[in-house]
Write a structure and sequence with these properties.
Distance between the termini: 33 Å
CATH architecture: Orthogonal Bundle
Order of helices and strands: HHHHEEHHHHHHHHHHHHH
Largest sheet: 2 strands, antiparallel
Radius of gyration: 21 Å
CATH superfamily: Ammonium transporter AmtB like domains
CATH class: Mainly Alpha
Helix content: 55-70%
Shape: globular
Number of helices: 17
Number of domains: 1
Number of strands: 2
Strand content: under 5%
CATH topology: Ammonium transporter fold
Amino acid sequence: MSRKWNFLSLTFLVLVICVFGEDYAKYVPGKGALSIDSGDTSWMIVASAFVLLMTPGLAFFYGGMVNKKNVISTMLQSFVALGVISVLWITVGFSLCFGDSIGGIIGNPTTHFAFNGVGLAPNGDFASTIPFLLFSLFQLKFAIITPALITGSFAGRIRFRSYILFMVLFSCVIYPPLAHMTWHPDGLLRNLGVLDFAGGTVVHMSAGFAALAGALFLGKRKEIDDQPANIPFVILGTGLLWFGWFGFNAGSAFAANADAVKAFANTNLASATAMITWMFYDRFMNRKMSALGACIGAIVGLVAITPAAGFVSLGHSMLIGFLAALAGNWAIRFQKKLAVDDTLDVFASHGVGGVVGMILTGVLAEDVGLIHGKPDVFLMHLATLFGVAIFAFGGSYGLCAVVNAMIPMRVSSDQEQRGLDSSQHGEKLN
């Protein structure tokens, strides 16, 4: 029954998009107040491609960190989001995030259902110099990588079909309100003054706290084997993520302008600072300066600078990278002492990194940060952090319970013992 239901659901979605989907009208230059800027459009096409590359990069990053019998399954859990979320986004996801605002909380699902009204002309409410379709495709890449980030927390023990269902529900229930409230012109958090340049709350905190919920719900692995299968995969994945993050952050300026350049520079410097801070701190604590540590440090720096990328100076981006690396390092050590089996330390990296980034954005943001004697943004960020944490954790834990009632989320002991590559996919890493 489940196999038939999967296929019939896909068939239904394809038919819906075919029947109700947007028939793109030809863009006519010079019509109306808004016009396409070729430079901005070129940059945003490139930035969108950069961000898409991050998901395969994440697959390598996670795949190299797990044990050998779960490499393929872990990489596929990231990679499959490219397909599932792309179809879901066109059908209803984009409208839930950026449709007409319902109380500043979520978008009307009928506004852009099946990409209705998402055409080639610019939409001044979101980006006035690029096609509205391009804006949507850029935002799609964020929606793709967010559930993929969560997978590291329950790697090695989740049923693949259950994960797909959880990903769909997360992308309809948890992600859209956060994206809408933060980035929509009528969004509640945006109008309250919350600053999130490229996804500190929307992407990293939501994924981090959802990862913690998933790890707690599924429980500890039967056999904890933290020997990485392939460190070069981790290094490759880190390089692809770092590269893609330039599109992630600099692209969030939605134009080829000074804000994009500032975000680009801050992104690189924060990650570089966090990477060397992590390595030197490990040596200070009499631990090896490992390749794995360098890679995790770089990622934590990228996470932390994300909300602040367009709002802080180069010096402050270094401070953010430095403090985030210390916080992430401590969080991973502390988490390992607890009975929480977050396989790849997603919460410590993305949840804690996102929290640090949002707090420091409220402190350091140019003109409106706490260091400028203006506490309003900082206090609003603190309130937002608590709200997002409760919503993302509680909502995700509830979704796990719903999914588990429909399809058991955890594989059997025998399947876990054999490894998910074999038991879930019939494949094996040679």
